[in-house]
Fold this protein.
Amino acid sequence: MARALFDPERGYYTRHIQTVGARGDFSTSATLSPSLGAAIAAWIKAESRIQPRLRHVIEIGAGDGSLMHSVRKALGWWTRRRFTFHIVETSPVLREQQQKRLGSQVHWHTDIESALAQAQGHAFIYHNELLDAFPATLVQWSAAEQRWFEVWVPESLHPHEIDAAHYSVLRHTAFKDGQRCEMHPSIRDWLRNWTPQWKGGAMLSIDYGDEFPQLYHRRPHGTLRAYLLHQRLTGADIYANPGRQDITADINFTDYAAWLREFGATQITCHTLADLLRPHGAPPQLLDAEGAGSAFKCLVHRPQACA
Ligand SMILES: C[S@@+](CC[C@H](N)C(=O)[O-])C[C@H]1O[C@@H](n2cnc3c(N)ncnc32)[C@H](O)[C@@H]1O
């Protein structure tokens, strides 16, 4: 998955993604409506009442730039002037699109460490549908052997060597035979690398997923899937066009929250996206109980010193 998405020569995000949104392979809540930008701007304003001296805003994984555009617009001229805006983006194709849209209003970085260094460690950070693009490790429960196996490509089962202490899936033994789940050591490694540099501010993490184990309720095949031209692909089709299609998995927020706690951050709130968007004129498909707004979670964390 890491190579299919991020290989420098042939990865989907590095080379082949055209754009995010109606003309791309998938849409996000950010490309569907400016209400997410308005909600994030309101969050930044509320956080800056608590930490009024903060001067940096960082978006990680900015897609076509529409979210940063709507956040800046909704902040308004007066508040916008107080902040320096940064985007952390690994895709050269998307960075070019963002630069066309946002011009000199934003500083670009290829990793969060560089953005945090410019902000002297103090920043309001947000990301939408970033975590679901991180490479996942697929595992399968064997009821006969009462243990988890890692699923390799092409499909075959292998004993895993992952430390169960950090992954709720590996400590769970109550699934039916053959249950598949995803884990994200890639996200834990990423957090472990940059959180020591984060000294002040707050982070809003928005993504699809749920607490474990309800994330896998009625999902015996797990959540791993691919998208090509707005078509959802599962099973063997996930591996059919490496580098040509997006591959994604839901986020296990039980683990995500535990890792941030482990690395010293404090969780302040956890809402659904519908809760976040309701006051900001979101379209019905983002608010209804069965829709995206309920499937997405929004977590706010602060580094320990600011909690
Ligand atoms: C699914 S898109 C979401 C785009 C945008 N946030 C939105 O809501 O429309 C994922 C974005 O994260 C970027 N990305 C993936 N991994 C990243 C990483 N490790 N650091 C920074 N950006 C990353 C991708 O290039 C892309 O811009």
Summary: The first helix runs from residue 2 to 6. The first strand starts at residue 56 and ends at 60. Residues 13, 20, 28, 30-31, 60-63, 67, 88-91, 94, 128-130, 133 surround S-adenosylmethionine (CB under 6 Å).
